[in-house]
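Same chain as my last thread, 363 residues:
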Amino acid sequence: MGAYILRRLLLIIPTLLGIMVINFVLVQFVPGGPVEQVIANMQGQGDVFEGFAGSGNDAGQDMTGGGDNEQYVGARGLPPELIAELEQQFGLDKPPLERFFNMMWNYMRFDFGESYFRKIDVLDLVLEKMPVSITLGLWSTLIAYLISIPLGIRKAVYDGSSFDTWTSGIIIVAYAIPAFLFAIMLLVLFAGGSYFSIFPLRGLTSDNWEQLSLVGKVLDYFWHIALPVLASTIAAFATLTLLTKNSFLDEIKKHYVMTARAKGLSERKVLYGHIFRNAMLIVIAGFPAVFIGVFFGGSVLIETIFSLDGLGRLGFEAAVGRDYPVMFGTLFLFGLISLLVNILSDLMYVLVDPRIDFEKREG
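reply #2:
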């Protein structure tokens, strides 16, 4: 197993490098770099993309690196020395290849630089936003598992019954509703919309959180996260329930289950003493991957709707604002974490069922 883990760890290097290369190359062809952002603000346009409207062929020119100052849409009338100073400030006066290798060398030492526009280290910025994303990812995953596993087992045991039929209908509807639409519905219904004003609209805590008692802080925290966590849970809950049901149905039909029943074991003993461990292999071992999926995926809209300042919103704002250190720094960190979680998922398989040996399977 040690050799397998070592091989997987070594594969992280070319995989992560490929991710960074592809995204860096794509960024070179996207108009509206950080210099354009500054120019747009200086000229009172507010947003760089307003400068592209009606700009004709100028909008198709490369605006992400150094070179001729006339390449910047909206730069006319500004001193060339100012444009050159901005390029030097953002490090765009160097060739793209040199900038990429410098960036990767710094990232290998976990030096992600400073945000262009926030004047704060990227790593500090990520750590600042982390609590919101961890809250959404962790609680959504735990709730999804706590609901999906018992429900999926019961659906498998009573397969084809009226209970299985109507719960399947609810699951299909839940899966079909986009998370952001469900979030808006929750806001309208329970957060001061047209009906009830039960839950707060934004944030993880109240303004007077520091003055609350320990119990008050805990209750205030859960009061604030109730709606965003519920909105984030809906899709994962539906998928996990069907996965659990299908896993149990596959195991129930196997010969060892018939043998256990023939020996006179009770249905409960057969279900939880024999079927459960094999059926739950995929579900339990996939916990890290599900958590990362909820942690990174779909959080942008949820965080925006509920005014939560998390990693999803940070990445989106960095992409729109062309804050390259934040863009590439978070991409590197998230890519590294995702690849490590894939290895952790494999280790979870072995932990749940020691009979699995990835080295023999590869051989």
